[in-house]
Amino acid sequence: MSTDGQIFREAWIAGVSKHYPGEPKAGYVAPWEETPEWERECAAAVFGQVRDFISVSGGNTSKLSREQKGRFVATCWIAQIHKHIENPKPGYVADWVDLPSWQQETDADIFEAIERARS
């Protein structure tokens, strides 16, 4: 059985594979076992934040747009990056509007994967 972080990572890899233009960087699609520990911690934390958000909304997150879902994942991820990396590269903490469309779509896919995992 997959852990919360693994579910997040699997959704990320699936989203990158679907939305990334061309060949993604190897690190983008590295399996869970090859993912750095800090990134595993981030994945598990963001999964938990999304799970809790779904719960406190009474399950009504299905009414959110894909953009709203993706923005939530992106914002939670940025907070985790700041927690784990002292001086992150600007691209690691870019605001939603500055993310490439493949990443926006992948973040929305992650939220929806967590919704499915909860049902």
From TrEMBL:
<protein>
    <submittedName>
        <fullName>Uncharacterized protein</fullName>
    </submittedName>
</protein>
